[in-house]
Design goal:
The chain has 17 helices and 14 strands. It is of the alpha/beta class. The protein has a six-stranded parallel β-sheet, with helices on one face. A five-stranded parallel β-sheet has the order 11-10-12-13-14, with helices on both faces.
């Protein structure tokens, strides 16, 4: 897939993205922002990536007490660091994309700002972003009309002025698969799919550690705890692990087992593990919490019996353990799931999708023209002309 060229003679090389993220260097953690940066460069964009915490970027500027405040003042939210200060060092930027770095910014720039969440628990720290990329959300509402469940509820808690501002565009998107990290070549030639049955391989430490103290975690993970406790108690999984130990071990389990249990967070209907399983040709046993979730997963290409096997109740896993090889064509599900992910859920596909949703081409054309006007001093002349007209109006009145 390629990002389409626009009709104004601009190429991707003319398009500059300013990425603000604390994890843009974290290749080993397959962070979204790292892959976003690398794939954008592969597609021909110019990408400047900065972090709020690295020396020489934002933290260094704050240490010089920009605006009479210290780093602590900004980090704790007492002050909001202006995006215009960062943009001053990257004046040719056409758009700013911010991954939630748990750091407060003030959107005081004229170019579009696209903000997305890296995880579910983080508060929103950008004032009035132009675009809001939301990975976790629900169309359901409470009796008084508020959004119900998932990310909107958390956004409502932290920044209702953003969620309820209809002027702010809100875009839903899912995570993606890193083909590089989950290639069979990276796992080793000795891996065989030699374990019948399904596995559970989860890393939800927060299920056990945070639920007793945090109502938000309980809302998000209570069903997850119920299901995995049932699987463990009834000895349903061929291999059961509550916490993964390494990416290598996790990949190995996906290549060795026929199927793996996927339990999305409540009302999120999105998990990268789903794509990773399909890419490794391990059949996803996908938990479906309600019909709305079924529709969302179907829109992503995950349909019962075609690209996944679904279950709505943990007791159904007992039936699957005994009869799923009679009821399902595993080879067909593996093939269709792999084709689905490689066509629709790679990082390259996701960036093309986001570019289309954000109408990047329109943004770049507008910014290009705006910069040309600035260079030719047209805008200042127009502003002076308007001032003269207003002055004449006042005199005539």
């Amino acid at each position: 897939m390629k990002i389409k060229e626009i009709n104004y003679g601009l190429k991707n090389e003319d398009k500059t993205i300013l990425l603000i993220s604390a994890s843009h260097e974290q290749k080993q953690l397959h962070a979204f922002s790292y892959h976003f940066k690398e794939v954008c460069r592969e597609l021909g964009f110019t990408v400047h990536a900065v972090s709020p915490y690295k020396d020489g970027t934002i933290s260094k500027k704050i240490d010089f007490r920009f605006g009479g405040a210290s780093f602590s003042d900004y980090y704790t939210g007492k002050k909001r660091f202006p995006l215009s200060r960062i943009l001053r060092d990257y004046p040719n930027s056409d758009v700013i994309i911010i991954e939630n770095p748990k750091f407060p910014f003030d959107n005081d720039v004229n170019i579009p700002v696209f903000y997305y969440h890296r995880d579910l628990q983080s508060p929103l720290y950008v004032r009035n972003p132009t675009h809001l990329g939301v990975r976790f959300w629900s169309k359901e509402k409470t009796p008084d009309g508020r959004p119900k469940g998932g990310q909107p509820e958390l956004l409502e808690i932290y920044h209702p002025e953003v969620w309820y501002d209809n002027e702010i565009k809100k875009i839903w998107f899912t995570m993606a698969i890193s083909r590089e990290e989950f290639s069979e070549l990276n796992v080793g030639s000795n891996i065989k799919r030699d374990f019948k049955g399904f596995a559970y391989y989860g890393s939800y430490k927060s299920v056990d550690e945070m639920m007793p103290f945090n109502n938000v975690h309980y809302q998000i993970y209570h069903h997850h705890k119920r299901i995995i406790d049932y699987i463990e108690k009834n000895n349903l999984a061929t291999e059961f692990r509550r916490v993964n130990t390494s990416l290598q071990e996790y990949r190995q389990h996906l290549y060795q087992f026929d199927a793996t249990v996927i339990i999305p967070a409540w009302d999120s209907w999105e998990t990268r593990r789903l794509y990773e399983a399909s890419f490794c040709k391990c059949v996803p046993l996908l938990y479906i919490q309600n019909e709305n979730a079924r529709k969302v997963f179907a829109a992503q290409g995950y349909i019962e019996g075609e690209t996944c096997i679904t279950f709505e109740d943990e007791s159904y896993l007992e039936y699957l353990k005994e009869f799923m090889y009679n009821d399902y064509d595993f080879d067909s599900i593996r093939k269709k799931g792999y084709e689905l992910v490689t066509h629709r859920h790679t990082y390259k596909a996701r960036i093309v999708e986001l570019a289309e949703k954000l109408k990047f081409d329109d943004v770049y054309v507008r910014n290009k023209l705006y910069k040309q006007l600035l260079q030719k001093n047209f805008l200042s002349n127009i502003e002076k002309l308007i001032e003269k007209i207003e002055l004449l109006k006042n005199r005539s009145s």
